[in-house]
Amino acid sequence: MQVRSRFVTIAIGAVLAAGGPARAQRGTGDWMTSAFDAQRSSWVRVDPKISLDSMRKPGFMLDWKVKFNNSPRQMHALTPPALLDFYIGYRGFRALGFFGGVSDRVIGLDTDLARLEWEKALGNPGKEGTIPCPGGMTSAVTRPLSLAYPTVLGGRGFGRGTPAKSGVGEPFEGAVTLRNAPPPAARPAPAPKPAPGAAAAPNPFAPRVQYVLALTSDGKLHMMWVSNGHEANPAIPFLPPNAHAVGLIAFDNTAYVATINGCGGVDNGIWALDLASKKVTSWKTTKVAGNVGPAVGPDGALYVAAGDGELVALAPGTLAEKARNRLNGAGFSSSPVVFERPGGGNMVAVATADGGLAVWDAGNINAGPVAKAAPFGRPGYQAGSVTSWQDANGARWILVAAAGPAAGIQNGAIVALKLVSRGGGFALEPGWVSRDLVSPLAPVVVNGVVFALSSGEFRSDDPSLTAAQRAAKSEKAVLYALDSATGKELWNSGATMTSFTSSGGLAAGGSRVYVSTFDGVQYAFSFPIEH
């Protein structure tokens, strides 16, 4: 089968597209936020096209690439997208992706056609800063989400993997709320009409409102309609200006974000914004580890890798401390990941700064880790986040990006560990180590396939090296597909990508895997078909 290639010039740059129609069937759940879900698992449970069998055959390739109108700042360029797999608007069906750029830009893209839907320049990030404090929009955009674990079988049947969400309706209506809710009931009686001359204010929490949220360099939270980027309400002050924010997430009418590196004089910590009252609450600490912010359990508890090795559980809304445990001998190198505990409850895992991993029972954080893995990578490597998934046999896997030189690792690799029950408790067993990778990022798992990125970034602790010097020493990024049981390579992108990845990361959905590079290009890999 031949796939058509086309070159289209649009407002945000040049698009090279190869196929990509509306897919016949999709996986379960949209990629809503950094690392997929509230738990930061980076695990897409099912997919109709991507599987171990399909990846062993030819056909997976570059679907399209788009160069966005976004200027990099220091080592930052684009952030991973939030996805809306199936949207029904006045122009018909859409699969949408929402991409953030460090230059305070948000782009809405039709991900089936690689076609610009809308673009918003939300401000001027001002003077460029330093590598730790680049300025600009540093957190990925997010969509409001549920706290429940995504299900393996969504009961979707044929069609896309997420239910259709309509943007057609009465004024100020959209399609989801920030509050978890049961299936919709009958439409209530209409509210009284406003008095003559009074305009009805857009309600961001109406039953059908559908937004994408972005936090810009001036510290304001923007809520944009997914259909056209329109802001029905003014942006809400959230952080002081010029903070380095990561891990923006929104649930139950509240937005949360982490601040790192003490940028702009802003304390490191976790911040909460009540979107109804506009009240801001903060919890401050000396350090927040990782690049995807807090992980959230199904009960709303926020887990933070803080200080020099302190795992802290915070209450939703108030950010009151619920539990705290200090890990002796090591700090952290990643944000936490939350997953289901065998037999009930939840567990939390964090990569440690000495190159290892620790796991806690989320219901008893104060008691300390229930399992630890001895260092398997070079100390000091920033893993960023941790990936967790469960195989068909019920085994829990935890995947960590590690650097060499270390045992079995030259430059870097993905290390797979298996959490097992042993002696009435838990233990971490070695699983596999991937092929050699340059500055690997946290992988994503799609229907049993591990996608790992050799980012190519030249990382250095030398403060005298400028961003330009680090960029010049970096290599081209390469995406790999690995067998999740063995780590064996199934596929790679070869020389497709022409730059490295730094601030970005992986995302997946709708049978596509998304990678952005430092030169402002967004890549989508898939099984393209003609349209």
Overview of the structural elements:
With 531 residues, the protein is mostly beta strands. It has a single domain, classed as Quinoprotein alcohol dehydrogenase-like superfamily (Methanol Dehydrogenase, Chain A). Helix content is 2%, strand content 37%. The strands form eight sheets. It has a six-stranded antiparallel β-sheet with strand order 1-2-4-35-34-33, with no helix packed on it. A five-stranded mixed β-sheet has the order 3-29-30-31-32, with no helix packed on it. A five-stranded mixed β-sheet has the order 8-7-6-5-9, with no helix packed on it. The model is unreliable at 1-27 and 154-207 (pLDDT under 50).
- The name of the CATH superfamily reads Quinoprotein alcohol dehydrogenase-like superfamily
Strand order of the largest sheet: 1-2-4-35-34-33
The largest sheet, given as strand count, sense and whether it forms a barrel, is: 6 strands, antiparallel
Number of domains: 1
Just give the CATH class.
Mainly Beta
Class by SSE composition: mainly beta
Report the β-strand fraction as a percent range: 35-45%
Radius of gyration, CA atoms, in whole angstroms: 22 Å
Helix content: under 10%
Using DSSP, what is the number of strands? 35
Helix count from the secondary structure assignment: 2
Q: Which fold name fills CATH's third level, the topology?
A: Methanol Dehydrogenase, Chain A
**Could you list the spans in which at least 5 consecutive residues all have pLDDT below 50?**
1-27, 154-207
The rounded distance between the terminal residues' Cα atoms is 12 Å
What form results from the Cα inertia axes? globular
Overall residue-averaged pLDDT value: 86
